Amino acid sequence: MQVVTTVQEMQAVARQAHDAGQTIGCVPTMGSLHAGHASLIRHAAATHPFVVTSIFVNPTQFGPTEDFDKYPRNLERDIETVSAAGGTHIFAPSVDEMYPPGFTTTIHLRGIANKFEGTFRPGHFDGVATVVAKLLLAMAPDEAFFGQKDYQQTLVVRRMVRDLGIPSSIVVLPTMREPDGLAMSSRNVYLSPEDRMEATIIYAALCDGMEMAMRGFNDREALNKIMRTRLESIGRLDIDYVAAALADSLEEPEEFQTGDEVVLLVAAKLGTTRLIDNVLVRVGG
Ligand code: PAF
User: Where does the chain have alpha helices with state H?
Assistant: First the structure.
């Protein structure tokens, strides 16, 4: 396992791999790796001899009142996880390495980035798009693997890569869940035992919506209401949004058509922990 900490060295190591005829798979992360990340690394390792996981808690995607300082960090344990999952390299740059003094460039996407997470976390997707572009330029992957849990992020990254002509394919793999349905997330460690029990309501609400949409129920507001009703059965849940939208554009027509692929999205706080989750469903099954 080789740990690389500078952009220049990362680019050199990636170039050597390409020159030797190897393909590169990468998994961009903020560390504190869980089984969901390990699964992405295993998928990358199944098709690429060179598999690099980036570990970088990116300050520019956190708002001023968010959890950047307390975001869990554990490089030693992450190295073990990457190695056990079949990764060959870790790219773990410092903040100064990624944002040297005088750094002034920001990638801003219109449209798709300006609703849902974009509304509740202003500037978040500017930070994500900018850092992912930098990470892809450093790691030069043939394929970059992301989890579906951050659904809107995957749309933003795909669009940014297409618009800028970055020569990497984006692969999105399904969300990994705990046995009771809670989506795996590095932030789950913040949940108190009571929060952890109640957090399962989020996936339960998404399943309610999914079941109705599969049965052909296509009224968007009514789908939202079904999910919201289930979420509100937990008094302590502070809902940011609950929404049904077209999966490829995030547009919200009043009615969906049979056969439309729809994403159901929830973001809510339990205590001090903000959780997001989503499911994809085809209207009418
Ligand atoms: O999903 C994440 O962990 C982060 O948003 C990412 C893509 C690594 C960018 O910092």
Answer: 7-19, 35-47, 75-84, 95-98, 117-120, 124-139, 151-164, 193-198, 200-214, 220-232
